[in-house]
Design brief:
The protein is an alpha+beta fold. The protein has helices at residues 19-25, 39-51, 66-74, 115-123, 130-133, 139-157, 202-216, 231-239, 256-260, and strands spanning 15-17, 28-32, 54-62, 78-89, 106-109, 160-165, 170-177, 186-193, 221-227, 243-254. Strands 1-2-3-10-4-9-8-7-6-5 form a ten-stranded mixed beta sheet, with helices on both faces. Strand 6 (160-165) and strand 7 (170-177) form a beta hairpin.
């Protein structure tokens, strides 16, 4: 997420302190570096987080990593999300030039005049994500997170933001990220569709346009991440030529004393 790009120096305990996340949520947020957690390492991490007044600690592990799952649960972590990474190849995606649904919709790059509407869509989308599922995160801040995310994407954190325009206003968006290193995959970041436009093929048109844009940027492999509970998104991406590549589990651990401190 956003905070991944704004980490501060990590302690020897193996924890990355997430500076952006901490500032946004208003309490200390950190992430376990790597996923090879054993009892001794997690005890060291626990002591470090208490010294640093961390309120929420994230851990991401492969779904089939039974050993880390056991250690995490014994250490007080709770599973909040199954993170599904899907992968497609722009050269063989079967839908990108054949989808004729939502034919009245025009897909185009975002404009400054779209931003308020994009923030509105973002604020009512993404409600299957781990922050909404974990009720310790305030609902209003969850909405603000995705409003901020799409605004920052438009501000340059994404390489391209495409919108679906119904002739009156933007009714959806998709963000595209080119690879940062040779051999890496491109990414579809955020995908959101206004409530009134869902079920009309807008999502498929946006995904097709994102793959076309990435193909024109000479990107062959593309990944996208969604939640296992988000069945509609999984079906959409699979229809668009993506296949499941990896499943991981997000765990959260809360330190109540840090939340209650002034």
């Amino acid at each position: 997420m956003l905070g991944d790009a704004t980490r501060v120096a990590a302690d020897v305990a193996g924890v990355d302190l997430l500076a952006w996340d901490t500032a946004f949520w208003g309490f200390g947020v950190a992430r376990v570096r790597g996923a090879d957690g054993d009892d001794a390492r997690l005890r060291d991490i626990d002591r470090y987080c208490q010294r640093q007044r961390i309120a929420c600690l994230f851990l991401l592990a492969d779904q089939d990593d039974a050993e880390t799952t056991r250690h995490a649960e014994e250490a007080g972590f709770h599973a909040v999300d199954v993170r599904v990474t899907l992968r497609a190849t722009t050269a063989t995606a079967p839908f990108a030039r054949s989808d004729t649904s939502a034919s009245a919709i025009v897909i185009r790059p975002w404009r400054d005049a779209d931003l308020a509407n994009l923030r509105r869509i973002a604020g009512s989308s993404h409600q299957s994500t781990r922050f909404y599922v974990d009720r310790n995160f305030p609902r209003d801040r969850c909405r603000a997170l995705y409003e901020t995310w799409i605004a920052r994407s438009c501000g340059g954190e994404a390489d391209m933001v495409l919108v679906a325009d119904d002739g009156d206003s933007a009714v959806g968006y998709v963000t595209c990220l080119s690879p940062t290193e040779p051999g890496d995959a491109g990414q579809i970041g955020l995908l959101g569709v206004a409530a009134e436009a869902r079920g009309s093929g807008v999502g498929s048109r946006l995904v097709a346009a994102a793959l076309d844009w990435l193909a024109r940027a000479r990107v062959e492999d593309v990944t996208v991440v969604t939640q296992e509970r988000n069945v509609a998104a999984l079906r959409l991406y699979e229809r668009c030529g993506f296949v499941s590549d990896r499943r991981q589990v997000w765990y959260h651990k809360w330190y109540r004393s840090a939340l209650s401190e002034p």
